[in-house]
Amino acid sequence: MTLQILLVDDNLTFLASVKKSLRLISNTSVLAEAHDGVQALALAQQLQPDLVLLDIVMSGLSGLEVAKAMQVWPRAPQVLFLSMHDNESYRLAAESLGSLGLVSKSNFVSELLPILAGLAASPKGVSS
Fold first, then answer.
1. Where are the domains of the chain?
2. Degrees (nearest 5) of the Cα angle 80, 94, 48?
3. How far apart are CA 58 and CA 63, in angstroms?
4. Do 2 and 29 form a contact (C-beta atoms < 8 A)?
5. CATH number of 3-121
6. Which residue, 20, 62, 18, 23, is CA-closest to 40?
7. pTM given for the model
8. 43-66 burial code (b ≥16 CB/10 A, e <16)
9. Span 7-57, pLDDT tens digits
């Protein structure tokens, strides 16, 4: 079973770092990358990933708006937010949307990779 992931961030350098780090985790696959909220919604609907790693602050639709729009889908993906703005209001908003949480971009290696390794090892919500 492989955890199918859609990466969404407007910072291309950060996306490349995340993608490189994901290669260290078995049973994960990056389906695609999106650089804004509109593109994220289109790709998520088309590809139906298990997980969307979603930046909160982007031009156009924010990550919070994207997550809210996906909530009504019959097979909504899990969402894990990423942000360089690690504050309580974003954490509460992420929680209220039923996400897996918020990971600070500055700590993504120590916080994100263990979460993804756990998800990839779990059969719940993972594609076969």
1. 3-121
2. 40
3. 7
4. yes
5. 3.40.50.2300
6. 62
7. 0.90
8. bbeeebbbbbbbbbebeebbbbbb
9. 999 999 999 999 998 888 888 999 999 999 999 999 999 999 999 999 999
